[in-house]
Fold:
Amino acid sequence: MKRTILELQKVLKVEKRKLADYEFKLKQLKEHELLLHESIEDARVNIMDYEKTLQVLESMVKNNLDHVEV
Structure:
């Protein structure tokens, strides 16, 4: 009976360690997910900025070409 108790205590210890490990990994995933969402939003903002800049530059080039006599 004593041996059974000791074995169950070992099993319990292992399971608690597993649970702590899983909870830690889940916390890391959640933190990583937040960072990914921020990175995605930053990338979207950068893309919009580059698209606007390109539109302005292309418009300037077109306007310059329209004013050049051929």
Q: What stands out?
A: Residues 15 and 69 are 82 Å apart (CA to CA).
